[in-house]
Amino acid sequence: MMKNLKPNVCVIGGGAAGFFGALQLAEKIKSKANIVLLEKSKEPLGKVKISGGGRCNVTHNLFDIEELIKKYPRGSKELKYAFQKFQPKDTITWFQKRNVALKAEEDGRMFPTTDSSSTIINCFLSETQKQEINLLLGTGVRSIFLNPDSKEERFVLSIDNDTEIKCACILIATGSSKKVWNWLTSLGHTIEPPVPSLFTFSIPNSRYSNLPGISVPKAEVRLLPKGKPQSGPLLITHWGFSGPAILKLSAFEAKNLAESDYKAKIGINWIGDFQTNELFSYFTNLRKDNPSKLIGSISLHPFPSRLFQMFLSNANIPLDKRLAETSNDELSQLSKEITAGEFDMDGKSTFKDEFVTCGGVKRKEINFEKMESKIIPGMFFAGEVIDIDGITGGFNFQNAWTTSTIASIGIDKYLT
């Protein structure tokens, strides 16, 4: 079968960006070219399958582009243009036209209404068959060569079984593949060194590790001494901390944390909306108004009583002490423990099955109006193979849908 293939376009990588790019491409250039989609594994769309705990977090219902680009630690400037061409609203419409309804959850994450990633996978596979895309599974690409003397066969792909495929242009959507990055380096591209992005923090002997499973809705976390704070829900785990606030911090500080070998000092404001002096004023007013009240009986929203009692314990304040008996120094220490706690990070842990790598093809070497290489005409990129990554919540898939759509537009123009 492979010997008879004479594609104009080869899409390398059968993940989210590869499939979406091939499908968008097929609709635009069906009369101009044949498309081959190559995937080295026998089961495509592996990351789609496990995303969102098997439900597939397709995108996020954030439609304001200025706010949307803030969800990308790397690539926000380039994506500002890209999202004007294809953003979450367009993703929703694309799936709706193919009878896949999406729903938004309270935190903005969007899933298929079936709550099953199989819905997305089956949609892609069905559309691939309908568009007559040549899907070659279990077919890895060993190397890429350039044939500058022929535009129609500019790229020569050496694939498994010692077979070659020649084509006019290629779309590289291989994600975080060191092998592919090595090819690209040999062809003249620069690769930003890859480091993990979304991960939880290991805090050995954390003074809160005996409260695993307890969470707060709006903490503020930062890398000390001068890191930019990230806010969101915070979860205590038996190994340290997790939750959206930690995952955001891991993304925005990915390179700094990698450079420090994941040893850093972390600051946590458990209450987020209050600073130390404001919380201290609240406690002194409470002491004035309720002098006989036991400090351990205070209900401080939004903290569970066990967590507040742990704050007291870590501030060395007995639970049975009356407010009238507490000193300013004690209330100051309690306020600091809640709003400016410091913790020593020593390592990281993978967040469930969802992992993202920052790094990849240097953005300045790509024309984001077409997703085409500025170094090698006819070579296009989409998804995480580029040095772009987002925080958790559907933003990395949206990057895949957007960049692969723009690549399809660029390839259409290239073949014209």
What does this structure look like?
- This protein has 416 residues and is an alpha+beta fold.
- It has 3 domains: 2-195 and 356-415, FAD/NAD(P)-binding domain; 199-272 and 343-350, Beta Barrel (Elongation Factor Tu (Ef-tu), domain 3), CATH 2.40.30; 285-341, Orthogonal Bundle (Helicase, Ruva Protein, domain 3), CATH 1.10.8.
- Helices cover 34% and strands 24% of the residues.
- The chain is built from 13 helices and 22 strands.
- The protein has a 7-stranded antiparallel sheet with strand order 17-16-13-14-15-12-18. A 5-stranded parallel sheet has the order 6-2-1-10-22, covered by helices on one side. A 3-stranded antiparallel sheet has the order 3-5-4.
- The longest helix has 21 residues, at 395-415.
Descriptive labels:
single chain, 416 residues, alpha+beta, FAD/NAD(P)-binding domain, Elongation Factor Tu (Ef-tu), domain 3, Helicase, Ruva Protein, domain 3, 3 domains, seven-stranded antiparallel β-sheet, five-stranded parallel β-sheet, 13 helices, 24% strand, elongated
